[in-house]
Design brief:
By secondary structure, the chain is of the alpha/beta class.
């Protein structure tokens, strides 16, 4: 990741190491479509998988051959995280994004196969058009899926209901939903959480279980499954058990990690504001010292964007 990466006109591609593979993702931050930018939540999601893949539910032995659909795939980062663990992934997005997505899939699939000729550890990645709630598009990808994944797919209130209906249309009784999300609006975030909790069992992945570098107070990862009450005992998805699935324990979730980040399942608006203040302070100290790693430099762009959003030029 180049230090000036975030929405920079000088950066048309980023290099990102995933499970020992150096992948290259083309992007176009200056296009009119948000899907042509590599957003930070997708990187946090992939690095979470990388950290938790040695055993448990995200190990290659458990994921081999599982069917995954990625919603709002954009540049395709999150899908490759699952495919490198053995999943067969369908990366989907709107028509305007597909050329860039297909280019990234073809390039990185070729890179992986060249590095590991004859290996069956890599699953597969296919690309498909999917407009949310389009019945023909949904039927064409052949649901249900074992996993539904998405990162930064919600940024406005009007997207919440279409996303929910699409998830239901793609789900079976045992589908697991994995979402990554950067909080940009507390109002949208609160509405989203309320919607998830009404329809799913929801767990927020503790910061202690994320990659130590690739995490941030405003980026959350969720793991969800259908509520048992909505299904019969024979067909319902297994309960989300943090101990057996190597994600963490209730004790971990309700404690604080070494960096002082709260791991409570619910996120209060006041906590979010204080995290933003903490983030800005840490970054400013780093800038004054002249020492920033690539991830901190990337987050500077986010901080600057928040400041500029509130500036009115007269």
């Amino acid at each position: 990741m180049e230090p000036d990466r975030l929405n920079s006109p000088n950066t048309s591609a980023i290099m990102f190491e995933v499970l020992g593979h150096q992948l290259q993702f083309s992007q176009d931050p200056n296009s009119k479509h948000l899907g042509t930018t590599v957003w930070d939540a997708s990187m946090v999601f992939v690095k979470f998988l990388e950290r938790n893949c040695r055993k448990g539910r995200f190990s290659p032995s458990k994921l081999k051959g599982k069917r995954v659909i990625e919603l709002g795939a954009g540049c395709g980062v999150a899908g490759f995280g699952m495919a490198l663990l053995g999943c067969d992934v369908v990366s989907t997005d709107q028509t305007e994004v597909l050329p860039l997505l297909m280019r990234n899939v073809e390039r990185n699939t070729s890179r992986i196969m060249q590095m590991n000729p004859g290996s069956d550890s890599f699953g597969s990645v296919q690309v498909a058009e999917l407009d949310w709630e389009n019945e023909d598009h949904i039927k064409a990808v052949n649901p249900p899926f074992d996993f539904i994944i998405g990162t930064d797919v919600v940024y406005a209130e009007h997207l919440l209901d279409p996303l929910l209906r699409t998830i239901f249309a793609l789900s079976g009784p045992k589908t697991t939903i994995l979402l990554g999300y950067e909080i940009r609006s507390t109002n949208v975030h609160e509405q989203m959480l309320d919607m998830w909790k009404q329809n799913f069992e929801v767990k927020i992945i503790p910061k202690a279980k994320m990659d130590r570098k690739y995490q941030h107070p405003s980026i959350q990862l969720f793991i969800m499954g259908l509520k048992p009450s909505a299904e019969t005992p024979e067909t319902s998805s297994p309960p989300i058990n943090w101990e057996t699935n190597e994600i963490g324990t209730r004790e971990t979730e309700n404690s604080q990690d070494k960096n002082g980040d709260s791991n409570n399942e619910t996120i209060e608006s006041d906590d979010f504001v204080s995290d933003k203040v903490k983030e800005d302070g840490i970054l400013l100290r780093g800038l004054q010292n002249g020492k920033l790693n690539e991830w901190e430099a990337r987050r500077y762009g986010s901080m600057a964007a928040r400041l500029l959003r509130d500036v009115k030029i007269t």
